[in-house]
Amino acid sequence: MGDAGIDLSLIGDLYRKYRDPLAEVRKAQREFLWETRGRMTPQLDDLEAEITYLLLRETRPETVMELGTFHGWSTTWILSALRDNGTGTLHSFDIVDNVVSNVPAALSEGRWHFHRGDVRKNLGEVPEGIGYLFVDAAHNARFARWYLAELFPRVAPGTPVSVHDVFHGRRALPLTEGAVVLAWLRRKAAEYLTVSRRRAPAPYTALLELREDLGLGEPVRDSTHNPMIFFRMPEH
Question: What are the strands of the beta sheet with 193-194, ordered from one edge?
Fold first, then answer.
């Protein structure tokens, strides 16, 4: 994938390229959601979870950092990609450890390190050489300003980054994480992709149609907001 931007054309190509393994992961995740009912509240909608998987498959990072795990839905999608790549380690950070009892050992063993605690007090545990950064933690402006100043400079330019809960509506709400990150991206003249149903209905619909054509139309979970943004880390 090189240093090309993350756009709808690329994602469409990745859906076609990884259609078969994605179908297997979707099936497994649907079963996992059923098995963990009552203790799992999934945070990612289908499109953003699948895009995360596809970008990880294509970029094949050796080190992934996940900031915010909650019950482990995103964690299992990320670990599924690393398993299918046959390489890579995930470092997950959260102040709660619900994820530990939910992630299957078959996915976690040999490829997952969970760090419990406030990452702001544990910067020394942040791995070097992050090849993919996934952010879904506190969604307030103060925390966003912290990680823009303290965490993002540790990530090399060109590295794929995902930030969740930006576009639940047509615009990011003022004084939120999303508003802070979007302002930062504008200052950097950096582009991003979202398939938020409210913000970007045309890309959202285009991917639904493509997935239907590929036989991937059956939902894994019943939520369609897809508020995440995807971008490559700009120059510092």
Answer: 112-116, 89-94, 63-67, 132-135, 160-163, 229-232, 193-194
- Does pTM surpass 0.90? yes
- Terminal C-alpha separation, the chain: 21
Q: Which amino acid is at 36?
A: T
Q: State whether the Cα torsion 233-184-45-203 is positive or negative.
A: negative
In whole angstroms, what is the distance from residue 45 CA to residue 135 CA? 15
Length of the chain, in residues: 236
Give the torsion through C-alpha atoms of 154, 133, 107, 219, to 10 deg: 180
Q: Tell me if 207 sits within 8 A of 12, measured CB to CB.
A: yes
**Could you read off the pLDDT of 45-68 as tens digits, one per residue?**
999 999 999 999 999 999 999 999
- Tokens representing residue 183 in the block: 């302002």
Backbone angles phi, psi at 155, to 5 degrees: -105, 130
Average the pLDDT over each of 171-175, 181-185, 190-194 and give the range with the smallest value: 171-175
Helices 46-59, 19-35: inter-axial angle, 10-degree rounding: 130
